[in-house]
Amino acid sequence: MNYVLICVATLLFWSNSHIIMPVLPKYTLHLGVDGKYIGLINGIFNSSFLIRPFVGKECDRRGRKTVYIIGLILLSIAAFGYGLAPSFFCILLFRFFHGVGWAACSTSSNTIAADLIPAERRGEGISYYGMFSTLAQAGAPALGLSLIETHSYKTVFMVSMTLAVAAILVSLPLKLKTFSCSSVADNAQGPLFDKRAFKVSALMFFLAISYGGLITFTALCADDRGIGNISPFFLVYAFSIMIARLKVGRYYDTKGPTLIIALSMPALFISNVLMACANSLMMFCISGIIFGIGYGSLQPTLLALSVKGIEPERRGTVNGTVMSAFDLGIGIGSTLLGVVANYGGYLIMYMTASLAPLTGLILFLIWNRSGIVKSTDDC
Asked: In this structure, which long-range contacts are made by residues 133-137, counting pairs with CB atoms below 8 Å and at least 24 apart in sequence?
């Protein structure tokens, strides 16, 4: 029952954030803000990577559920605040609080899921858990774009707030095991980061740069190229993630992560190259399918690999380390790619973004020789 509750709550809080993600850039332009600042929207949001290590540590010290509920409250406040924000500065302020809430929720929920899933089925369990976030990625962006066409920006923000409140209500019945006082005390004196997660975190960082560019700029790129309704892109992209997750989890548990990582990084590279050249909805959707397969395979694999062999009382810290890298990648990627898009156009921007998974692939091939997937001590 706890596994079902965390999955449903994950669907709700991911929807809270993703319904806003393609809408905020449009809302910012609607307010008359210069396009070169659009990347700051996700850059500020993902600057929450600064608190990820502290969030992970607090998950281990004070409990996953406490951190999770606090994060959900921040998500609801931020969503409400967007509709009241009179300026771009205020939007960025609420965006930062949204990022802090997101950091708390995603770190704690990933840790809760890892705690609930048996080690021998962790790849499969994390993949199924991740499907609920994929459902949010499928429906929420399309719903957000539809609502601004049929209603208003404020309607989107109110729906987002409602989703966060619903997640709070679903999460309240969660019953999670606690750790011994000695384990908590030992962890309180431990480091904010866990070095065993550094290599996996580096791969997650390069994945996130590519992901941030795709999510932040796809709708704007489609508008720039005269493609009216880009909602089908988000649907096929998310559907591809779901299909990948259904297959990859069990494969990870039986065969390991090597082939998954080695094939997923090139898929992300190819997707960005296709997006750079896309001039029709069909090409956008093909790129989205390939990216969805790559992302849907790689992200749960890295999450499962990061906690392999990690003590339960250190999983929050490890998740904080890995998700800090993810946030940092999206933050840096969105901000820098926004500048590139403003001065060089979307073709150059997506070609630049394609270098991230290529770099990740090279690092993986080098590190795999020394056993990144063979020993948790080397992760």
From this structure: 133/10, 133/11, 133/14, 134/238, 134/241, 134/242, 134/245, 134/296, 135/11, 135/238, 135/242, 136/10, 136/11, 136/12, 136/14, 136/15, 136/18, 137/14, 137/18, 137/234, 137/237, 137/238, 137/241
Percent of the chain with pLDDT over 70: 89
Report which of residues 73 and 2 the model is more confident about.
73
pLDDT (mean) for 338-344: 86
Question: Which DSSP state fits 108?
Answer: H
Report CA dihedral (256, 262, 263, 268) to the nearest 10 degrees: 120
> 22 near 145, Cβ under 8 Å?
yes
Domains, the chain, in order of start with CATH, read 2-378 (1.20.1250.20)
Distances (CA, A) of 221 to 13, 67, 82, 277, 323: 26, 37, 24, 11, 27
Structure-token pair, residue 16: 């809270």
How many C-alpha atoms does 26 have within 13 Å on its Cβ side? 23
Asked if the model's pLDDT at residue 377 lies above 60, the reply is no
Q: Convert the pLDDT of each residue in 246-295 to its tens digit.
A: 888 888 888 888 899 999 999 999 999 999 998 899 999 999 999 999 99
Lowest mean pLDDT among 133-142, 144-153, 187-196, 314-323: 187-196
Give residue for tokens 């998740």.
319
Both tokens assigned to 301? 């694999």
Is the distance from CB of 164 to CB of 102 less than 8 angstroms?
no
> Two tokens at 321?
């380390």
Residue 180 has pLDDT above 70, yes or no: no
